[in-house]
Amino acid sequence: LASPAENEPSHSFGNDISHDPSSPRRANATLVMLARNSDLDGVISSVEQLESKFNHKFNYPWVFLNDEPFSFEFKRRVKVLTDADVSFGLIPHETWVQPPWIDEERARKGRDILIKEGVIYGGSVSYRNMCRYNSGFFFHHELLTPYKWYWRVEPDVRFYCDIEYDPFLFMEDRDKIYGFTISMPEWEPTITSLWSVVKEFISDHPEYVSPNNSMDFISDDAGDTYNMCHFWSNFEIADMDFWRGEAYTKFFNYLENTGGFYYERWGDAPIHSIAAALFTRKDQIHFFKDIGYKHAEFAHCPQGRQWREGHCSCNPNDNFDFAQNSCLRYFMRLDDWMFG
Ligand code: GDP
Ligand code: MN
């Protein structure tokens, strides 16, 4: 279990300002990053950018989570980057490691198949731990339970543009649940059986499927097959109460019981995306087209007026939205993107 010293919450959660009428309205929100001590340089780079483009004006707290204790040096180098509250949490062991009921022989065979197929992280157990943790557990971490909204950040990402408004309040005021910047297809071999499990779940629980869902985003044949499209979850601005709610809790447990996180290599991105697409209304999913962002080799760069007003440092032509394998066209008409 997490030691109290490691998980010491910061002294205020930033939302407790109701007593001060001169303070601007704030959301009950936090920035959150999962990282290893060895990620320090990339963590600093991401925090430095998000602080200078956005958070130095808003001062939302940061929460860092790790399956091992953060080093003194890590905390010292990260805390100095912001005036906001920063807390460092240890992930409870039992929510991170491969559960004992998983058949390790079968899991090993699953890893071997993905290694042979050359799938990225195909042989990695720690990557599977991370995907399962992001799918089903982070929002129950004691440092995150006080908050409703989170913005997921990863080491070594880029934020290209000034963000002059509060995206959390934007989401809250419009009744949004899930926000993304980049969408793309998943590697099929990592989720071979996922869609059949999803279909079983929704036939057992049709009551959770929203009448105004986004099945069109994830299926080209009205739900018969999965088209592999997902929102890229290394960037998420979303409502943790949705993950904590009845529909997603039952959905996650259903998936978990199949062992697919370990027998295959189910990613948190398709799982979050399928849930958001099916259990929310389409208008509750928001494309942050004004947030310039890059993870690995894929960027979303705002266009036109938003690029100019955001003083964006990205090349507007380096934009995955218009790439052949972007899934944005399944989410919205690209005409609306360009001219809407
Ligand atoms: P990718 O984006 O799919 O290539 O995966 P990453 O390696 O970037 O991992 C996703 C997120 O989980 C990042 O924030 C990583 O820092 C974090 N992460 C991945 N593996 C581990 C791990 O074993 N321990 C911890 N503490 N964080 C991890
Ligand atoms: Mn990453």
UniProtKB/TrEMBL annotation:
Q: From which source organism is this entry?
A: Suillus luteus UH-Slu-Lm8-n1
Q: Which PANTHER family match?
A: ALPHA-1,2 MANNOSYLTRANSFERASE KTR1
Protein name, as recorded: Glycosyltransferase family 15 protein
Q: Enumerate the GO terms in the molecular function aspect.
A: alpha-1,2-mannosyltransferase activity
Specify where the region named Disordered lies, as residue ranges. Answer: 5-24
- Catalytic-site annotation from UniProt: E236
Entry GO CC: Golgi apparatus; membrane
Report the Gene3D superfamilies cross-referenced here: Spore Coat Polysaccharide Biosynthesis Protein SpsA, Chain A
One GO biological process from the UniProt record?
cell wall mannoprotein biosynthetic process
Q: Which family does it belong to?
A: Belongs to the glycosyltransferase 15 family.
Which keywords does UniProt give here? Membrane, Transferase, Transmembrane, Transmembrane helix
Pfam families from the xrefs? Glyco_transf_15
